[in-house]
Predict the 3D structure of the following.
Amino acid sequence: FEVSTEAIVARITADAIKRAVRAASVDGADAVFVSCTNLRTVDVIDDLEDELGIAIVTSNQALAWDMLTSAGISTAQSAVPGRLSKT
């Protein structure tokens, strides 16, 4: 996105995030990793996974998954979106 100010990163739209993930998804990819804790990705993960047929993993999602699994809490019933929560 070529943005270095966190306050601006937080305002990147869901549509812009979706376009970027689609562009990063190449044939044969198993997943796309979206790195930036200020990107608002929670609402787009499930839609993109359904559309692209691959896992979408974000830094915040991975952190939530790791905290839950480290605490011995099942992620299957959590609010963590995406395929990652099913592991």
